[in-house]
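Section: Multi-chain targets

For targets with more than one molecule, the full set of components is provided together so that the structure can be written out for the assembly as a whole rather than chain by chain. Components appear in the order listed by the source. The example entry contains three components.
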Amino acid sequence: MLALIPLFPLLGFLVNAALGRRLRKTASGGLACAVMVASFVVAMLSVGELAGMAEGARVIEQTVYTWIASGDVVLDLTFRLDPLAAVMILVVTGIGALIHIYSTAYMHEETDGEYARYFSYLNLFAAFMLVLVLGGNFLVLFVGWEGVGLCSYLLIGFWFTKTSAADAGKKAFVVNRIGDYAFVLGMLFLLVRFGTLDFQRLASVVAALPPEAGAFGAISVATLLLFIGATGKSAQIPLYTWLPDAMEGPTPVSALIHAATMVTAGVYMIGRNAVLFSHAPGTLLIVAIVGAVTALMAGTIGLVQNDIKRVLAYSTVSQLGLMFLAMGMGAFGAGIFHLYTHAFFKALLFLGSGAVIHALHGEQDIRRMGGLKRLLPVTYWTFLIGSLAIAGVPFLSGFFSKDEILYETFAAGHWILWTVAAVTSLLTATYMFRLVCLTFHGERREASSPAPSHAAASHLHDAPPAMALALVVLAVGSALAGYAGVPHALGGTNPLGAWLAPSFRAPGANPVAELAEGSGAAGLELTLMAVSSAIAIGGIALAATVWLRRRQLADAVAARVPGLYRLLLNKYYVDELYDAAVVTPIRVGSAEGLWRGVDVAVIDGAVNGTASLVAAGSGALRRIQTGSVRAYAGSMFIGVVVILGYYLWR
Amino acid sequence: MTGDVLAFWGLALLLVGSALAVVLSKNLFHAVLWLALALTGTAGVFLLLEAEFLAAIQLLLYAGGIVTIVVFAIVVTERLVGERISQTSRRIAGGAVVAAALLGLIVSAIVERPLAPAEPSIGADLTRTIGELVQTRFVLPFELLAVLMLAALMGAVYFARPDD
Amino acid sequence: MFSSGIDAVVPMLCVTLAALAVMGAEAFRARGEQLPLGGLGVVGLVGAAISAVLLWNRNAVSFGVVVADNFGLFVTLVLLLVALLTIMFSSTVVRRDGLPAGEYYALVLFATAGMIMMATANDLLVVFIALEILSIAVYVLTGIRRDDSRAIEAAFKYFLLGAFSSAFFLYGIAFTYGLAGSTRLDRVGTYMAAQSMSGNPLILVALGLLLVGFAFKISAVPFHMWTPDAYEGAPAVVTGFMSTGVKAAAFAAFARVFLSVFEPFSGEWAPLVWLLAAATMILGTVVGVAQSNLKRMLAYSSIAHGGYLLVGLVAANQVGKAAILFYLLAYAVTNLAAFGVIALLGTREAANDELRDYAGLWHTRPALAALMTVCLLSLGGLPPTAGFIGKWYIFSAAVSAGYYGLAVIGVLTSVVSVFFYLRVVVMMYMTDRPAAIAPPPVSAVAMAALVASIAAIIALGILPTPVLDFAAQSIATIF
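Its structure, encoded as tokens over all components, is:
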């Protein structure tokens, strides 16, 4: 039955890809949504079945067939549902289905063929993500891993007539491939070292080994390579640059990539291999530091961006940083918890921004918005809930998950990382409410824009029903999702944490007594909660003060430190740095160096002959005398001498 | 014995000299004549090795047939193109260095470990022996050569024949 | 005795007879008459395939110089598949470009016969003659469009350089004969095994010269220079044929000679082949990035793929050897199909093989664009395609044999290579068609060949195990 979950969207892809041009929009869009809903229903049923099993034995496995078998290495096409995968498939299919439904309205202006193309990519994306999540070994996971990379490329570049979109798609793919490179090496390394790529068997084998404390051994090397792959997929330093550009795609795609799929893959992969990573404390520390630094850096950049989607994009990078921080602390449950709540509010925020852009006919600059609260009430109220949730305002979903990360970090004794995370929280609250204030509050500023063709307020209409539905459902989710993980300190039982815990242990291992949370630490946790609540509310208040009451203050600050402002506005110049340090040298090296240098100038006599046979023959003869063939032969001869010389004069 | 050695060095000198002349002479026609000399010298080497049959074949096929065809090819091509074809060799120094390096390598290897002077027992009639071997042990390679010839002939005819 | 004595050459014989039949039919063809010459060739190929299957597991030896072991038969079947697909693609191209059907099909079949001989030869002399048969046929095929000066020039260059490399190869055979007193691989092998400790430099000279000959045919750097010119100049369907068939046949002989005869000296040649593999993968990939002509780009790509095959040869453990065979099949089908698409998009007047000619192909020829995409993804090694499994196998063989460096280079270059494959995909899907070039119609036969290849690529990616077992079995028989 598990195979059905990715199979449904795959079928949707096949039908839409094959027949798409002949289908009407209602048919292609309806089909795409239907397969996602079907997939969601099967996922629900499977998870229900899983929940009915005894704790610790919650695994449903389906081996479709033996994929590759040769010698000792047997790799099955296995789907495996365990508590961790259960959370993931519900997020992917549930939120994915909502995004599909939203898209039916959002993409309505496309032609039939383009509409079907869009939905076929979207379905394929979901299918690969589900393969990634359900894969029982690294190779199956890798199929999904590569697949979502490819689909994200197609979707980000969907509006390829926009050069920026095509470039962004390419960038996403290139950066992901760099990560994949390390990932493949990590897989090969594991295969050779442990003889298996099955997650459960790997966990069993590794669990028997002592942790590589102090030393940087095989597990550390392998996990580090895997983590580099994760930085590509999950947009962390140094491979995060593609994600902010990825907002060039249609907005629902951003929602899908940023919230439910793709970027969560890296975090999930670490959670999936919790045992492996736990045995490599060195790698874990790197994961934590990279996560924290990324969170802080992206948060500061988000503070000054003026594109509504770009702010959200940096917010994603920053939140993912927090998730990696949690993973690095060994608090895998906390990281996945945040992944899960983040999926709700980030999908909501992106879809809300899409509704704004939709209403304003493509305007994305928040400096040209404002005062939309009354005109777009549904969008406003849902967006506000999402913002409150991500800011960490008490008793909304983000509060619980973010707080667990902060608490775990502090409890692990890493107070520097805790400080970084706390500052990031402050930044989050501030830039989110800067966004809310500038977009929805204050005066409308659009009239001053150079292209006011649709400026009249009467033309603005709130989200159509399909979009409104998605927004409202996600808003409810953003508010309430956190109650799956109410911590003990607040009188809850953290059912999500308990549900996930077996997934982070080696199969058959006994649960470690994790009572620390419930007992003496409660006081500390409550204190930290109070602090972070104060931070969230303080950040919101700061944003409201600066961007509602005293706009000139922001400009004054920016004018006071122009260097810093420009540094942030230009995203620390990282793109430019990569361009100068990596992209340009490679391009020049390939085109000018190896090809023109070696294969053209010296050797390649460009082929441009004359018409008749005889003339061509003599032309060829002449060329032999003046160039290429002789040079080819000469280089071959040198090759022979080198080879023989290598043997005889060693 | 010394006679053999003397004859070998004489032939070798002739061979190397005429081969160099093939490459270096500007006049294509002269080059072909030098080629004929080089091929004849090769026949001489075969004779020294008591391979009379091969020497005869070498003379008939190469020095006789092939050289004649090449001469024809040059004459016809010059007629078609309407100008004298000449060859110029450039980068002689570079070529000499690489060739000398290869020669040095192979000679050094041979000097270090000379091949055993194998003298296969040849029956009374060398020509008969070769004929028998070609019909028995080497029958498949021999037949394969026919396939090779056929493919080559077809290619040559295809390029040479006029447009339909 | 005689009737059983020729068993091992029956597949090759079938193909040769088909070639002769094509020539005969052509000779007696009335002017303007259309003959199903390609069909005649297909009959021969199918006959050869049947006989190859019947020979399975029998280890038939004929004349002492040809051995139909499972390894040779596996490669034979791959070669027959290559020839079959080539003929199916050609049906459209021959008519469209006005190629001489008789010569064309006969040469394809002669080349195939030579390739089969090369894959099953047990004697260096036969390897050489087979090499020449396939080479001569392919030289002519390269220049089969006499009206295209590019093709003629490509054929001429290929011919001259091929002859040059043959000389080295022959020199290597001569040295081997001088040492071992035979050209039969089993006898040479016995001699080499006895000599493995002698440190005779002449063995290394012979080994090096043979290596050069093979390296030329599989376009290993630095003996690759002819490849881009020849591949670009030849008609696309011929390029597909020679980039897969010649490479597969040469690789089979290369593996046979080096993994059996020179196995005792693997310590001597493995480091050298290591270097060749690394240089080949890197140069093929990096230079491929800069190409704007699709055929030239795929030429560099196929150079790089030769490098991956060399990795399998260096990591000559059981996995590596089976991986070579699997990779040969996966690469042959994929590359052939890619060149098939290129061939089908050309017209008599214009090859349409520049990257910009593929702009917006998705809008005009969605089926061809989709099929091409699958080919390119497989060449790039993305799952779940044949190319992915092949690469995965090669690299895991390299890692388990301890060649981490090669695996790192291989994975890196295959990551980079995706960029240039993807450029074509971008062109096809994400660019609007600039000018309304009317794409030519595609015959049902050619389309069937394409669809079958694509189905094979995906099937090999999703269900590789049967073929892998098959490959592992066939390699087990000899090495």
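Helices of chain B lie at 2-24, 28-48, 52-81, 92-112, 126-135, 139-160.
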